[in-house]
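Supplementary Methods, section 5.1.

A reviewer requested that the exact input to the structure prediction be made available. We therefore reproduce it here, unchanged from the version used in the analyses.
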Amino acid sequence: MNNRLEWAQAVAVEAGQLAVRMRTSRPDRFAQRKSHQDFVTAADLAVEDLIRQRIGERYPEDAILGEEKGATGAGGSVWIIDPIDGTSNFMRGLPDWAVSIGYCRDARIECAVVYAPDMDLLGAAQAGCGAAVNSREARVSDCRHVEEALVLLGRSARDGGDAYPQQVQNLIDIGMEYRRNGSAAYSLLTLAAGRVDAFFEAHLNPWDAVAGILLVEEAGGSVDYPPYAEFIDRGGPVLASNSKLHEATRAAISKSRNGGTGQG
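The structure derived from this sequence is encoded token-by-token as follows.
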């Protein structure tokens, strides 16, 4: 498995560098608009093509699930890729975006890489072996007081988005501060690196989060997400934290998602 992880890190870096070059050289930033405020650029397509090509060269029997081109292949070994998570940031020159590559085998996330080129951060994890950011051991933060905690909060139109303002208010009410950066993969990477203390988004697709989930878990954090088959099929909510703040964050989020009842 180490060979897969080392190989995936090299591919993620190659892919990220391609994206950066294309952003600099290509004036046609928008390839198309998929839906309201949901864009795909020429770089998204080219980066996914590159990653798929590299997987096909090295692991031709493995299946692939990618954001832009869907599922190919079959079997228990599958690569789940998001060529650019945070496309809106990427195409505007903002730094909060990442290449995400996860490898799953027999319904288990086995290894993960998240690379944020503009921030010079490369996160990698292998199940049962820990996580690293820029080749140094990664650990989630030690924050245990809600009054000191910083939460990254995503907003998903797929969940309707109506609960988002109440989620913000409930987190503020218990003393937490929040940010929204527009990239789940990058958010989970920063959580694994100990830079923030929790993350929540009401609906994520598997390519947004599979790699980041393993990074957080292997860095000592806790993650709530749907069962593997359900998550791969239709996505779902993801709550991640440094473990010490998990119950408090979950309670605040659950309160907003259940009409203010406070019941999960």
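The two ends are 37 Å apart (CA to CA). These observations are discussed further in the main text.
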